[in-house]
Design brief:
By secondary structure, the chain is of the alpha/beta class. The protein folds into two domains: about 160 residues, 3-Layer(aba) Sandwich (Rossmann fold); about 100 residues, K homology (KH) domain (GMP Synthetase, Chain A, domain 3, 2-Layer Sandwich). About 35% of the residues lie in helices and about 25% in strands. The chain contains nine helices and nine strands. The strands form two sheets. Strands 2-3-1-4-5-6 form a six-stranded mixed β-sheet, with helices on both faces. A three-stranded mixed β-sheet has the order 7-8-9. Helix 6 packs antiparallel against helix 8. The protein is globular and about 55 Å long. The chain starts with a strand and ends in a 10-residue tail after the last helix. The relative contact order is 0.15. InterPro entries: G_ERA_dom, GTP-bd, GTPase_Era-like, KH_dom-like_a/b, KH_dom_type_2, KH_sf_prok-type, P-loop_NTPase, Small_GTP-bd. Monomer. Belongs to the TRAFAC class TrmE-Era-EngA-EngB-Septin-like GTPase superfamily. Era GTPase family. It is found in: Cytoplasm; Cell membrane.
């Protein structure tokens, strides 16, 4: 009998939730960076193996900063993802436990669902005996079905985690076809790819004030034409994104285009434009146009 179900992956920003899902799936569906709050959407990734199908919900990092509308949307997307799942996984980082970690643990402790805690980045531990103390500390926080130490970036102990997760799935037909690995549409994936490259090339705090809207996505004669608008909040940010002689924007566009061509296996013509829109992160219409919280094609 086949088994399938939804499992939410939650945690504060930058604990490795997206990296964890990408490595389990064996394919990149969620953007990653060393900067927190990279993930802004609740994105579905689908793992199918043997009789089991896990539909992962990769959520934005839950955090205390709710000053901007976009931050409130991100927190709401994370908590709402837990409304329909069969189990919830909290990811935390070895050697760090913050007020936001505590907030997440206290929130999911109240849920009438199987709860799994993933202690990530164990490869950073020089003294492996310290792992037992960390596991004991996490054990006190909730009635966990299991606590699984892993290194997502090095794919350590992920097989054991998958076994634990499959055990939580109900017996039912698969939710999605076997070959499908995400519910995200290509407009969404294009926007996220461009945003990831902006995170890579911009080392200031600017990435948190950037957004990407796909204005055009059209296939003509075997070529995919994509026009994207990069939203910034100030004129000074526009200059930084463009760079001296347009070099930064060109580098971002080239890296994003190459990734998209690998993903689509066809030629991509990508044009990026930078637009100043003051306080766009407090503009619900713009946030909705980015499909925030959906992880699906943003039309």
């Amino acid at each position: 009998m086949s088994k399938s179900g939804y499992i939410a992956i939650v945690g504060r920003p930058n604990v490795g939730k997206s990296t964890l899902i990408n490595h389990i799936l064996g394919q990149k569906i969620a953007i990653t960076s060393r900067k927190p709050q990279t993930t802004r959407h609740a994105l579905m990734g689908i793992y199918t193996e043997g009789a089991n199908q896990i539909v992962f919900i990769d959520t934005p990092g839950i955090h205390s900063d709710g000053k901007k509308a976009i931050n409130r949307h991100m927190n709401r997307a994370a908590w709402q993802a837990m409304d329909f799942v069969n189990a919830v996984v909290q990811v935390s980082e070895v050697g760090q436990w913050t007020a936001d970690d505590q907030k997440v643990a206290e929130g999911i402790a109240k849920l009438p669902l199987p709860k799994i805690h993933v202690l990530n980045k164990i490869d950073r531990l020089k003294d492996k005996s310290a792992l037992f103390a960390e596991l004991e500390q996490r054990q006190q926080l909730a009635e966990w079905t299991a606590i699984v130490p892993v290194s997502a970036s090095r794919a350590q102990n992920l097989d054991e985690l998958v076994k634990v997760l499959c055990a939580q799935l109900p017996e039912q037909e698969w939710i999605f076809p076997e070959e499908q690995i995400t519910t995200a549409g290509m407009r969404f994936m294009a926007a996220e790819t461009i945003r990831e490259k902006l995170f890579r090339y911009l080392h200031q705090e600017i990435p948190y004030e950037l957004g990407v809207i796909i204005e055009r996505y059209q296939e003509e004669k075997g070529v995919v034409h994509i026009d994207a608008t990069i939203m910034v909040e100030r004129d000074s940010q526009k200059g930084i994104v463009i760079g001296k002689g347009g070099q930064t924007l060109k580098a971002v566009g080239k890296a994003a285009r190459e990734d998209l061509e690998r993903m689509l296996e066809q030629k991509v013509m990508l044009r990026n434009f930078v637009k100043v829109k003051e306080n766009w992160r407090d503009n619900n219409a713009i946030i909705d146009s980015m499909g925030l919280g959906n992880g699906t094609d943003i039309g």
